[in-house]
Amino acid sequence: MTDATASALADGYTDIPMGRIAAIATTLEMRSPPAPRPLPPLQEGLQIRRIERPDLDWYRRLFRRIGEPWLWHSRLRLSDSALGAILTDDDVMVWALSAVDPGGELVADEGLLELDFRQTRECELAFFGLTTPRTGAGFGRHLMGHAIGEAWRRPIERFWVHTCTLDHPTALGFYIRSGFLPVKRQLEIAMDPRLDGTLSRDAAPEIPILR
């Protein structure tokens, strides 16, 4: 920590303004592909499918279904033009973990994987998550294995992600077990997305709304 950082954020408690949420964010990275982790076949009726040029409404619905319990809000606050510019960029790739019927027809999308290669020789694991019913059943390992394979398919030098204390309580440990190394910690403050209608007032009831 630099002297300037230490003086701006002293030891002890720091007040967070009313109407804001705060989290400790951890940045993690890997500088080379990890050793492969053996995985059983993906459960019948599930597949990981690439979504070319995602429809904005589809993306927002899945983003909300996955992220509302953890107060994901960043992409929901973007305009159509801003979000569309990201999702249609040739260096941004999106996949869904999808449930399909025996005939291969889509039933529902249950997971989101987004890789961002817009920084030279880097890949950000921009978004990664599963809907609540699919969490904790091992599907995240399949999605992460896919993410690692796709990221290192390109000539990158760094694959990175950040998570925070508002995320699923197992997220940080999952990333570490997947081969990421924690390298930085930050305090993140944002407007509470439940106060401006970005998310439902019932989202994340364990985190009180202060205003």
Low-confidence stretches: none
Structural class: alpha+beta
Query: What series of H and E elements makes up the topology?
Result: HEEHHEEEHEHE
Q: Could you name the CATH homologous superfamily?
A: Gcn5-related N-acetyltransferase (GNAT)
CATH architecture call: 3-Layer(aba) Sandwich
Question: Counting H and I runs of at least 4 residues, what is the number of helices?
Answer: 5
Report, as a whole number of angstroms, the end-to-end distance. 32 Å
Described by strand count, sense and barrel closure, the largest sheet is: 7 strands, mixed
Overall body shape: globular
Question: What is the C-level CATH assignment?
Answer: Alpha Beta
Domain count? 1
Count of distinct strands: 7
Query: Looking across the biggest beta sheet, what order are the strands in?
Result: 2-3-4-5-6-1-7
- Helix percentage: 10-25%
Mean pLDDT: 93
- Using the coordinates shown, work out and report the CATH topology: Aminopeptidase
Strand content: 25-35%
Radius of gyration: 18 Å
